[in-house]
Specification:
CATH topology: TIM Barrel
Oligomer: single chain
CATH architecture: Alpha-Beta Barrel
Structural class: alpha/beta
CATH class: Alpha Beta
CATH superfamily: Alanine racemase
Number of helices: 10
Bound molecules: pyridoxal-5'-phosphate
Largest sheet: 8 strands, parallel
Distance between the termini: 15 Å
Number of strands: 8
Helix content: 40-55%
Strand content: 15-25%
Shape: globular
Length: 219
């Protein structure tokens, strides 16, 4: 069913919205099924799992780390990761810059914002992000490139609350773009929307959806 699910979702997505197929906990065979149906971008939330899968699977897969990332694990993914979604502290960004330098590459990242009401979700507040972007130490970094923002809405049936949270994230994106990234056309990504809420996210300006269970089945 993976091929059918994937094709149905890809057809639904408007132009300009990128699909990250979230393959966490799923075996390599499931990823290959999606790969053979044309999918190239996969999302994982654990460093070790992503590293193991990347070793085994085709080299043209673009691996996105979508979960919380600990600083001491950055080194394992720095050589190959395509996009890190969950930057939530300046310290983490500095570590990625350091590992990017060692690997002689510029690592693409997204700033994660706390938009949900739940306490448990990670992310910057707008003020924290602003403070970081104004810091001279940030301007001096040469091995990270901030591509945009990422967020997760509250897990609730209340669609207008979810829409409000996504709208807030898109507003953060637009404000940061106007203030800090006016001359950086690669600041172009709003990563929001999962299996249960991606339609709302797209209505609110998402350019990247992260979909797992609707493609691969329940975990
Ligand atoms: C697991 C996960 C997803 C995908 O969730 P589904 O509900 O299975 O689509 C998206 N984003 C993040 C950060 C996740 O951890």
């Amino acid at each position: 069913m993976i091929r059918e699910n994937l094709q149905r979702i890809v057809e639904e997505l408007p132009k300009g919205v990128t699909l990250v197929a979230v393959s966490k906990t799923k075996p390599n065979e499931a990823i290959l099924e999606a790969y053979n149906a044309g999918q190239r971008i996969f999302g994982e939330n654990k460093v070790q799992e992503m590293t193991q899968k990347a070793e085994m699977l085709p080299k043209d897969i673009q691996w996105h780390l979508i979960g919380h990332l600990q600083r001491n694990k950055v080194k394992y993914i720095a050589p190959f990761v395509s996009l890190i979604h969950g930057i939530d502290t300046f310290k983490l960004l500095k570590e990625i810059d350091k590992e990017g330098r060692k690997n002689n590459r510029i690592i693409d990242v997204l700033l994660q914002f706390h938009i949900a009401q739940e306490e448990t979700k990670f992310g910057f507040s707008f003020e924290e992000a602003q403070e970081m972007l104004e810091d001279p130490e940030f301007s001096a970094m040469e091995h990270v490139n901030i591509r945009g923002v990422m967020g997760m809405a509250t897990f609730t049936e209340n669609k207008s609350q979810v829409a409000d949270e996504f709208r807030a994230l898109n507003n953060y994106f637009l404000t940061l773009q106007g203030h800090f990234f006016k001359f950086n056309p690669t600041f172009d990504t709003v990563s929001m929307g999962m299996s249960g809420d991606y339609a709302i996210a797209i209505d609110e300006g998402s350019t990247m959806v992260r979909i797992g269970s609707s493609i691969f089945g329940e975990r």
